[in-house]
# Entry
Amino acid sequence: MEENLLYRPPKHRGLYLDPRTKLLFLFVLATLLFLLHENLPLNSILVLIPILLLLSDRQYRPAWIYGGLFIAAVLAKEFDRRMGFPYLPAMLLGLLSELIFRFFPVFMFGYYIIKSTKPNEFISAMELWHIPESFIIPVSVVFRFVPTLREENRSIGNAMRMRGIRFGAAKFWKNPTMILEYRVIPLMMSVAKIGDELSAAALSRGLGGPKKRTCLLKPHFGICDAGIAVLTGVLILWTLMERV
Amino acid sequence: MQSKNLNAKDLIHVGIYTAMYLVVFFAVGMLNAIPFLYPLEYLLSPILTGIPFMLFLTKVEKFGMVSIMGVILAVFWYLMGYTWIPALTYIAAGLLADLLFRLGKYKSFQFDIIGYWIFSCGMIGCAAPMWLLTATYMEQVRDAMGDEYVAGLQKYMPSWMGIAGIGIILVSSSLGALLGRKMLKKHFERAGIA
# Structure
């Protein structure tokens, strides 16, 4: 591999995982969570993995919040089993703990992937897998875009609050479809505009040009990836043993 | 660049509108936390996602864009824990819809409605594990959400809802397409975006 003398990519914080490992593990996680059946220890491990990875990437806040939520959910479930809640709270709690047990590991791992992987790195890893560009580009745009959408949505919300257009306000009840028109349409306007700008910016940087893309960062498997591979093997075995 | 292949701009548009579709879909999807509102999702989702989808269609001129959107959504549903069934239906729906749009040369509004209907039918796959994998899937839902939720689900989402869903979605996606087009006419064309 040729070293570039002028530019060295910045060192990674914490554990370095190859983007390919992260993606594969995301699929493993989603599959295991579906196969999982009332197994608290295994579920806790599946929850712990994203938390530890987030901590190693120094994303302390989300890690603590998620860890706290998980503990609360476990406690609530235990409490419910012993004492029994009445129907409505039990259903709501069940719903929340379902979210925390089954969906959050994938969410948090996805969050970890987004926070710890540079789009650049992600694209070059995907190219090593020979995934066609027509799939890589839209996916990276989706990742890039969701935070933008949230930001735009917040600003539009603020602007509309100034005009007294809000969920639950008196004006809202007079004409409920208004909220759709006043919130969704401006959002889509700005999305369409940002989209055009984004494609102009990407084109001017040579995206979609005839030449093959190069990347200074060479994704490579390391010892942490081997660790994840072993962990995956153990988790899959464990899940299968449970089901037999 | 040849005009037949998808260029970078098209691909970026696919990404943007997929993100938009996902966000709107999830906002509506929160409803199915309550069992008897589950069928309502078939009604509401296609209507509300109609606006982003119709705007997306104004950018689509080549074969493949809608299919790619279907594939990306399929991967998302799989990761969200909906099993492989919605993944399959979304890929199939995306491809079929794309073929239909192509028949209409990406211009005809009639074909847009039919294609959007087919595309929205991919949604049925999200509930399909309930009927196809009843034993394992329901057991799991029961663990998590309790007996009442499962009973509610089975009451309000019997398996014929899958078939009825196609009909419901026909109505709601036509409404969605009309709403989307109305909004395009009212706001976007005037602003010169669509």
Remarks:
- Chain B has one domain: 8-191.
